[in-house]
Request: fold
Amino acid sequence: MSAPLRAVEIIAAKRDGKVLSREQIAAFVSGYANGSIPDYQAAAWCMAVFLKGMTPEETGHLTQAMIDSGDVIDLSSVSGPLADKHSTGGVGDKISLVLAPIAAACGVNVPMMSGRALGHTGGTLDKLESMPGFSTSLSPEGFAEAVNKVGYGLIGQSEKIVPADRKLYALRDVIATVESIPLITGSILSKKFAEGADALVMDVKCGVGAFMKTREAARELALSLVGAGKSLGRRVIAVITDMSEPLGRMVGNFLEVEESIACLEGRGPDDVMAITYRLTAWMLIAAGLENDIFQAEERCRRAVSDGSALKKFRENAAFQGCNLSDLDAMIGRTRGRCSRDIPAPQGGIVNSINAFSAGMAAVALGVGRDKADDKVQPLAGIELLKKSGDAVAAGEALMRLWSEEEWRLDAAVQRLTGAVIIKQTAPELRRSLILEEISD
Reply:
């Protein structure tokens, strides 16, 4: 019988830049999850990984060990391909709400485990729960039934799914290792594959409104995700997209639900739809339903134009408890109690809108959280009345803000100071929102 692996030796090996074995990584992750390895040793190991990195194979072993730390949702009852999409987070990023019903209408089964607002970025769960009666707390059996009957289900992470990730993430947040590419990769992929997905399309956002501020950092994460997926025998496709400006015209929880429905009705903003169609097309390819990206995109467009994607959205909403009559009654009518317009300081043409500033203003309004236990305001948010390239007169409204408290409007206005750049000339032709695609 071989001697048990010692945590200090595993830490030292990674500190010295050595490649850890599957057994070493599994022993460390399971030991931390069950409490036999204390926080101080886990902190030392995380810092060693942060400084020395991991190979794609090591990151794959880390992902598998994290999956093995808890329950895995059984979707064997679902017939057909299972693929999901995940975003690293942005402002006005309602893509998941539009993408999932389109993919389902095209024949992809989408098991989607989503998160809540984090920092300046919005949370898919918060948006979904702004719909009357919508529940993101399905049982594993209910989740499988949603995927099987409707084509997609949307849930939050339970305490039994990847518990090692929950512990490691909380630790990384206080020891300055949140930015570690291997640890980010393991965190994302473990949750997605534990939920039952066979393939994953990653929207790696890049720019001032993203966690990855530079193209280089976004590409490093994209390559790590694809490489780790390959080492696990799972298809991961990464698409790097621009997050310099808010997506669409709505930033909020229910506001983004409204805009998502408009997208599914064929009235969506061009920027939202460009990214949605591309990511959904890659899902069709990952699921083996299409081979050509352009044909896949056209199939997605048909699902919107023929109404089948909107039908899937409503089927899913009803299955997960939403009162559709109440939802319909809220559209275009229900807003936060207090409102304020932001006037243009001068006339001209809008050249840019800083996504980070808009995201922080949304947090101030109550869309997101300053602390983990803060409650979000479903009806708070920002409507962008003008976007880049739009002409505006001095004093004309650039944005409209909503919240439940007047003081929040004051805080949001402060965070929006200087966020909109107006010039007398039109902005330079904006680069494509799709910056790079890494499919293998």
Remarks:
- DSSP finds 17 helices and 13 strands in the chain.
- The chain has a mean pLDDT of 94.
- Residues 215-231 form the longest helix (17 residues).
- The chain has three domains: 7-53, 83-328, 338-423.
